Amino acid sequence: MKEKILYIPNQDEYLKVSAINNKIIRFHFSKDKEWRHNYSFAIEKEIIPIDLFSEESENEFLISTSFLKISMDKNNGSIKIYDRENNCILADYENLGYKRVDKKVYCYKEIKGEVAFLGFGERTGDLNKKGKKLINWNTDNPHHTPDVDHLYQSHPFFLAWNPQVSYGIFFDNTYRSYFDMGRENENYYYFFAEDGELDYYFIYGPTPKEVIEGYTELTGRCYLPPMWALGYQQSRWSYKDENEVKKIAERFKEEDIPCNVIYLDIDYMDGFRVFTIDKNKFPNFEKMIEELNKEGFRVVPIIDPGVKKDDSYEVYKEGIEKNYFCKKENGEIFVGHVWPGESVFPNFVREEVRKWWGEKQRILVEKGISGIWNDMNEPSIIPSFDYKMMRLLFYHLKFKEPPRVPSFLEKEDFYSKTLSADVVHGENREFTHDEIHNVYGLLMAKASFNGWRDAKPEERPLIITRAGFSGIQKYSAVWTGDNKSTWEHLYMSIIMLQNLGISGVPFIGADVGGFWGDCEPELFARWIELGIFYPFFRNHSAINTKNQEPWEFGEHIEDIARRYIKLRYKLMPYLYSLFYEAKEKGTPILRSLILEFPKDPNAIKYEDEFMFGPSFLVAPIYEKGKNERDVYLPEGTWYNFWNNETFKGPNIIKVEAPLDIIPIFVKAGSIIPMRGEENKIELRVYPGEGEFLYYEDDGISWDYEKGIYNLVRFSLSKDKLNIEYIHKGFKETKFITSTI
């Protein structure tokens, strides 16, 4: 039996139950006795359910897999899920496993032993969302604080944890949805959506890592980014012209600070028209990129979804002729204001529109760019847009007389608007914007990724996006949007990135130094120290703020930045290997402590620390003037990265942290592959018991998909290091060993 259908008398609806594998169960409820949700924007691979074992009594259906037993009450459809030892993992609250109010669909679950609820995508506030209410609705809000909920990404997934068992829930519904994790009542949590069907997946661990592995088996896993994309990256809104971009690159060389990527924000375009270049500012665009590439710099330009309404603009004309832009229910093309002024928006739900958009990228790809930066794709518009004020702003910038940021740029409602509710999407306008809004950024990223593979199939790109939904990791890196140059936002990034990682997105980062506002020297130093552990490591700042390149803060801060950026490059072989693990299992790179220490009841309390892979414990400094902090060390032996002093855990220790030091500890038994001299890999060995999977390939092509890579197991037992090739399809590497 592949699925079980159960009638629910008190709701006059049906429940369809199927097993994706022995640990993942799908519960799909009908609406008006029909199942229309036979598609998914997040789950794209074909899923063939496994066979279920079924039993039946007078009042109960019982189905089981090799790991789980699912009991369903025949009278009210109430569900209980047990493990193999008949321990109840999850149960409906009373008979409210399915509830409907008008178009809204609800599901209530008992809170029993759950200590923490984690994930939910990009979230501010505490790491543990128990007792919180959360909203899934992609929103451009650069003025967010820890108590602001929905932002640029929506991931209707969470991981429930206690030291004994973990499970996950993925609510596959793209409408505006909500999670109340015990705020209303400590005895239950519930989730609901404004419309659509109640369609969710239960994902059994029992460990947190296994939950994430199961979730990403559904929604997909990341591709391996090119090696250069793991380096330091420099951006600004905006480097105004070709000469300034070249000078920035030259200065990095002069200052001996490694940098791999320079970004071009909206001002490289001709009047903010996507896929165009301002010939006055960038008269030799292709030659500039060629010269930068020779010096080791990649160029990544920004692309927004808003297409300028301009009858002389080829992209607009073609989109109009082919009926590629979003329309309202009455057939009118939707027009909204963004940077170009009046703009129209591609109907990305349609495959042919995504392909068209991807083909348009070829204009830039063939000029030598190395990636695509997708922005404003919540999608964000500005109905109250004062175009004259914006033109005035850019006029001042052109003549190097920038005013302070205009007040209208600082209003929250300036950014929070989107396409109107009467916009429709799809081949036959079958989707309302309410259903597509949260996946618009995902579909744009998909178009960018597939377009790149068509245009330049031999080379991996760097695709980054501001907006996204569950499954975005298949196509793009994610940064946390427009943050601020404040200590509060530095701290917030620690939490936001942990939750994004738990939500299946490994290639993540926040704008180092902060986007809005003037970054002060001490804050910049601390942010660089933290930023080298962001999987995506970019420094980005806004128009009319103080320049934020590393040399802008004085010699001492520049020395600190140089030292830490170089450390990032030394750790590249370790980091690249972590990306291989993320590609294979979905395991995040920046990890909450519970991922490595799932049975430690104290691990959840220390949200201001994280693991960088399995070996490094990082305890950032996030308060002004602080030069020491308490650090929680879980069970085991730990080495201070800076002086090799050893400590025993579990324990809380006080650590000195002057401005040039971020507390870092390495777990005993770690083998850290680091970049050595003459293309050798230095294995830094920390005595103990452990192992590490080292991965390498050419760092640029898709040849790894053909088996052209090496996978090497380093194992350490009784202080003896063993090196074993698991897969050998690439050139042999020379390893040198240094033992602490």
CATH topology type of the domain at 3-219: Immunoglobulin-like
**CATH architecture descriptor name of the domain at 3-219:** Sandwich
Overall geometry comes to globular
Number of strands: 45
SS-based structural class?
alpha+beta
Terminal Cα span: 57 Å
C-alpha Rg (nearest Å)? 26 Å
Which CATH class of the domain at 3-219 applies here? Mainly Beta
For the largest beta sheet, what order do the strands appear in spatially? Answer: 32-31-29-26-21-20-19-33
Roughly what percent helix? 10-25%
How is the main sheet built?
8 strands, parallel
Kindly estimate the percentage of residues that lie in beta strands according to DSSP: 25-35%
Report the average pLDDT across residues. 94
CATH superfamily of the domain at 3-219: glycosyl hydrolase (family 31)
Walk me through this protein's architecture:
A hairpin with a 5-residue loop joins β27 (423-425) and β28 (431-432). It contains 13 helices and 45 strands. α5 (351-365) packs across α8 and α10 packs parallel to α11. Among the domains are: 3-219, glycosyl hydrolase (family 31) (Immunoglobulin-like), CATH 2.60.40; 668-740, Immunoglobulin-like, CATH 2.60.40. The chain is globular.
Q: What key phrases describe this protein's structure?
A:
740 residues, alpha+beta, Immunoglobulin-like, eight-stranded parallel β-sheet, seven-stranded antiparallel β-sheet, 45 strands, 20% helix, 28% strand, globular
Write the layout of secondary structure elements.
Layout: E1 3-8, E2 13-21, E3 24-29, E4 53-56, E5 60-64, E6 69-73, E7 79-82, E8 88-91, E9 99-101, E10 104-110, E11 116-119, E12 133-136, E13 153-154, E14 157-161, E15 166-171, E16 177-180, E17 188-193, E18 199-204, H1 208-219, E19 233-234, H2 242-254, E20 261-264, H3 285-294, E21 298-303, E22 307-308, H4 314-321, E23 327-328, E24 336-338, E25 341-344, H5 351-365, E26 371-374, H6 387-398, E27 423-425, E28 431-432, H7 433-436, H8 440-455, E29 462-465, E30 468-469, E31 477-479, H9 487-502, E32 508-509, H10 521-531, E33 538-539, H11 555-570, H12 572-585, E34 590-591, H13 593-596, E35 610-612, E36 616-618, E37 628-640, E38 646-656, E39 664-667, E40 671-675, E41 681-685, E42 690-696, E43 710-717, E44 720-728, E45 735-739
Parallel strand pairs: 13-30, 19-20, 19-33, 20-21, 21-26, 26-29, 29-31, 31-32, 41-45
Antiparallel strand pairs: 1-2, 2-3, 3-18, 4-5, 5-6, 6-7, 7-8, 9-10, 10-17, 11-14, 12-16, 14-15, 15-18, 16-17, 22-25, 23-27, 24-25, 27-28, 34-35, 35-36, 36-39, 37-38, 37-39, 40-41, 42-43, 43-44
Helix pairs in contact: 5-8, 10-11
